[in-house]
Design a protein that fits this description.
Blueprint lengths: L7 H13 L2 H8 L3 H15 L4 E4 L2 E4 L1 H29 L4 E6 L4 H15 L4 E5 L3 H10 L4 E5 L7 E7 L4 E4 L13 H4 L5 E3 L4 H12 L8 E3 L2 H9 L5 E3 L1 H5 L8 E4 L3 H4 L2 E7 L6 H18 L5
């Protein structure tokens, strides 16, 4: 088998297994069957006549041959992504591009207060704004497929540059007719007596809520759950439960004036944070550096209660 005939799909599976430390974890991340990955890697080992994986305890690690293939795949993929971005720039006849991942609850204010200013300074730069779950965001940052990200939740993992800003308070959101609406603040024990609206587990907000309830020996048990803040607002307006979000997120949603936000009486709610993230290994363009500075400036002002 020559180098040019190596099956790229099989090598991509090998790379993911090395990244995630196991075939099943790689399969979960890719959304494929673990048996399909095992079969492809077994065929690759037979074709190369070399072992590519070895088991160490409960984990699977790459052999020296496996590492060589995975490293070559990573470098080749990085070069291809760079080429794709350059071609995209040429297609759009732009002076470059910037890709930003933003947590759903912060997209509106970032666009209004940051992207508008950025586009005035770099009108020729193509701006790609994405939203999605935190795990995918971290993976894309590590792979260099996005320049930076804005997320709500605890600090990012090692290997990422992370700037944290105060974002609280987290509030209970209800219509004015709700029994909680007249309170200045609400405790978790009071919340536990009402129907609650949860968010998908990948939301930083939900991780904060789970941590708060655990700290007081309670279990967050929602009556319903959703993966859009607009859906949470609609559910609250329909009397289906208590929604949760920061005042900044609520202000960005239509019908926000028909709801009341009551701060949660808990340290974690008061000290919640948002994070600006980018890979320490990813070289940013001058335009991306400028956007990074704008984001830091905006969230610093917001954390201190200063005008945008």
């Amino acid at each position: 088998m020559t180098l040019s005939s190596y099956p790229e799909k099989s090598i991509s599976y090998l790379y993911e297994v090395g990244m995630h430390g196991g075939i099943r974890r790689a399969a979960d991340a890719l959304g494929v069957n673990a048996s399909a990955i095992s079969r492809q890697l077994a065929q690759l080992e037979r074709a190369l006549q070399l072992p590519l994986l070895e088991r160490r305890g409960r984990n699977v690690v790459l052999t020296d041959a496996g590492k060589l293939l995975a490293e070559d795949y990573a470098l080749t993929s990085q070069r291809r992504r760079q080429l794709e971005r350059q071609l995209q720039d040429m297609r759009h006849m732009r002076g470059g591009s910037v890709t930003l991942r933003v947590g759903q609850g912060m997209a509106d204010e970032v666009i209004r207060h940051v992207i508008a200013e950025f586009s005035q300074a770099y009108p020729a730069v193509f701006v790609n704004i994405q939203s999605g779950d935190m795990q995918t965001t971290l993976t894309l940052l590590a792979k260099g497929e996005v320049d930076m990200a804005v997320s709500f939740g605890p600090s990012g993992p090692p290997g990422l540059r992370c700037n944290s800003f105060r974002r609280g308070p987290i509030c209970a959101v209800v219509p004015p007719s709700h029994p909680l609406a007249a309170l200045d603040k609400v405790t978790l024990s009071q919340l536990a007596e009402h129907r609650l609206i949860g968010m998908d587990e990948q939301f930083g907000l939900q991780r904060y809520l789970n941590a708060m309830f655990r700290s007081e020996g309670l279990i967050f048990t929602p009556a319903c759950s959703c993966n859009l803040f607009t859906s949470a607002v609609s559910l609250a307006l329909a009397g289906q439960g208590v929604a949760f979000m920061t005042p900044q997120t609520l202000r960005s949603i239509h019908d926000c004036d028909r709801l009341v936000a009551i701060p949660l009486d808990h340290r974690i709610a008061r000290e919640s944070q948002c994070q600006l993230l980018h890979s320490a290994d990813h070289r940013m363009t001058p335009a991306a550096h400028y956007l990074w500075r704008l984001l830091n400036s905006y969230f610093a002002r917001s954390a201190n209660g200063l005008p945008a």
